Amino acid sequence: MFEEAPDRWQHPRMQPEPQANDLVCEIYHTALNPEDYERLVDTALGALALTDTEPSEDGPEFPGARPIDPVMAARHVAQAGTILGQSAPFPELEKLFALYRHLPAVLVAPNGLVLHANPRALQLLQGSVCLPLACSGAFSGALSGTVTRRIPLRYEGTQDAVFTVLFDPESQARLAAELAQSFDLTEAETDVLRLSLQCLGRKEIAQRRGVSPETVKKQIERILTKTGAGSQMALSQLGAALWRDPGVPDPATNDPGTAPLPYFPDERSFLHRGRRLSYRVFGAPEGQALVFFHGTYGFCRWPQAAEAEAARHGLKVIVPIRAGYGNSAPLSAGADAPGAIFADIAAILAREGVTRAPLVTLENDSALGFGFARAFPEMVSGMIAFAGVLPVTRKAQYRRMDKWHRFVVGTAHYTPALIPLVAQGGFHFAARIGREEFVRQVYAGSPPDVALLTEPEARAAILDGTRVALSPRHLAHRAYALEMQAFARGEWQKAVAALRGRLPVVFVNGATDPIAPPATIAEFRADYPWITFELLQDAGQFVFFRHWGRLFAHLPAIVPRED
Asked: What is the CATH number of the domain that holds 185?
C-alpha cells in the first residue's frame, strides 16, 4: 500500500519497493530538515505495507510490515534525535532570548498572557501569568518603575506576540553607561541614550531634557554613527549583547520546589512524591467535579462559552496536565506510563477532595479513560468520549485511518523504537510551519476540523489550550511518544471489557474523523453494544470544540447518583 506523495513516491507502481535503507535515509533527512517531515510519513507507510501477515491473538490486526531491526532502529533514532535536538523549533525567538539572556525578557501575547520568560524575568514576575503592562508602559506591584523594550513579532507563522525586555532603572542606567564608555559618548548623548532605551520617542526625550526635537534627532544620529548601529532598535540589541552584570548571580532554575510560571491563570500545582503536578480548575468552585482528559495534543482549554456553561451547570472542571506536558514533571525512566499517569490523576483528585466524578476524554484518551476507571473504579461514575476510539481489531479499521494517524499508530505498533523520533520530528515540524498550518495539513480530509480555525472561540481554545504540548517554552514530544506506545500496544482491551455493565459510557464522534470514520463506528457499535454511540455528520476529530453542548446533554447519565 502506497500513499500519493510528491517526488520519489508520486508514481509508486513505477518505483521499487521501499526498503529499510530508505527509511533510515528519511530518518536522518527529517533530523536535518524537519520541515520535510511528510517524506518520512510516506516512506514509513510504504515500508509498513509491504507484506501481509496473520493477525496476532493479543494485538491489532494491522497489515504486515517489514520494519528495520529494533536495535538498529534505536541507534538511528538516538543519533537522529541528537541532531534534531540541536535545531531550534522557534529560531527567531531563541535568537532573541539568547541575545537578551543577561536581562529579564518575556514573550507576551496580545492579551498580556506571558508565553515564555527567562529566569531573570521570572524573578520579577513572581509567578504572575499575566504581564500587568498598560499601553502607557506603566507597571504596578513588583514591576513598579520597570521600563521595557518591546519588539512585535510573529511565531508559528500566525501567532502575534511581543518580545519584551524588562529594565529596572538601575540596570537601564548601567546599560547606558556601558555603551557610553565603549563608544566615547558625550554626557548629553549618554542622557539621550538612557531615555531612548526607555522606549521614549524624540518628542518625549526633548521634553524631558528641555531641548527641541531637532536637537534630539541630531544627537541620536551621532549616537548611531559612533556605535555603528543602523537604528534605535539595533542600538538596544547591541547594548544587550554588551551588557554584563557579574554582581548579579544567575537565578536557580532546577529547584523542584520553586513554582514555575503557570500556563493558565487558573493553573494549580503541587509536589507529589518529589515530582511537580499541575492542573487547571474552572467552573463552579464548589460544584460537582468533572475530570477532563486533554488528549495527546494537550487541549487544556474549552471554548469560552463552554467554560461559562460549565459554571452555570454547577460543574467544577478539573483538567490534569499529564506528566511531561506543561509544568507537570516527566515520568522517571522506566516508569509504567499508564499506571504512573493514573496515579498522578488520582493524587490531583485527592488534593481537590474529589471521591467520585465522571470523565470526559478527547480522541485517543478514551484508552486512558478506560484504564483509569479500571485502576480506580471507586472514583469514576461514567465517561463521555469525544472522538473516542476503541481497540483496533480489523485490518480495515487500520486502512481507513488517514495517512498521518495510520503512520503514527502503525509505527508505534510495529517499530516502537522509532516513535521517539516520530514524535520529536512531528513536534518540530508543527513548530516550524505553525499549529494552524499543521491542522490544515494533518486534518485536510476533515473540512469541519479545518473550518474550526475560522471560529474565534474554537480557534482560541485549540491554539491557547495546546501550549502545554507545543510552545516556545516546551515541546511535549517525549510524553506524546510514551502515550502513543501504550495506546498502540492494545493492552487496554482488558480495561474496556472490565467496564461492561459497570459504568455508563457514551461516545460522541464526527463523521469525518481521521481515525474512526462511520464504517469503523458501525463496527464499534456491533462489538460494544453496551456503549452508547452518537455520530454527528458535521464534525471530525475536533467534535468537542464544535458540539461541546452534547456534553451537557449526556451529562445526567454519567454524574454520580445520590444514594
From this structure: 1.10.10.10
C-alpha cell at 390: 476503541
Name, in order, each residue with C-beta under 8 angstroms of 469's C-beta and a sequence gap of 6 or more.
Answer: 296, 297, 298, 325, 326, 427, 475, 476, 480
Whole-number Å distance between alpha carbons of 325 and 300: 10
Tell me if 394 is assigned to some domain: yes
* Segment 116-172, tens digit of pLDDT: 998 888 887 877 788 765 444 455 556 666 666 778 888 776 778 888 887 766 767
- Which pLDDT band holds residue 322 (cuts at 50, 70, 90)? very high
Asked if residue 444 has pLDDT above 80, the reply is: yes
The reply to whether 362 and 491 lie within a common domain is yes
Q: Cα separation of 516 and 158, whole Å?
A: 30
Contact 164, 137 (CB under 8 A): no
In a domain, 248, yes or no: no
Total H helices, total E strands in the chain = 24, 14
Shared domain check, 188 and 96:
no
Mean residue pLDDT across the chain: 83
| pTM given for the model | 0.82
Say whether pLDDT at 449 is over 90: yes
Segments forming the whole domain that contains residue 116: 91-167
Residue finishing a domain among 167, 186, 217: 167
Contacts of 219 (CB under 8 A, 6+ apart): 188, 189, 192
Residues 328 and 461 in one domain: yes
Nearest to 541 by CA among 435, 459, 443: 443
What φ, ψ does residue 348 adopt, rounded to 5°? -65, -45
- The most confident of the ranges 52-66, 130-144, 306-320, 406-420 is 306-320
Tell me how far apart the alpha carbons of residues 357 and 267 are, in angstroms, rounded to a whole number.
20
User: For position 68, what pLDDT does the model report?
Assistant: 62
Percent of the chain with pLDDT over 70: 83
Residues 121 and 224 in one domain: no
**Boundary-marking domain end, from 167, 198, 229:** 167
At 350, which CATH number?
A: 3.40.50.1820
- Tens digit of pLDDT for each residue in 6-41? 333 333 333 444 455 677 888 888 888 888 888 888
221: Cβ–Cβ under 8 A, 6 or more apart, which residues? none
Q: Do 110 and 189 reside in the same domain of the chain?
A: no
Sign of the Cα torsion 152, 126, 294, 485 reads positive
Q: Does residue 75 sit within a domain?
A: no
b/e sequence 331-344, b meaning 16+ C-beta within 10 Å: beeeeebbebbbbb
- Give the containing element (helix H, strand E) for 194: helix 187-196
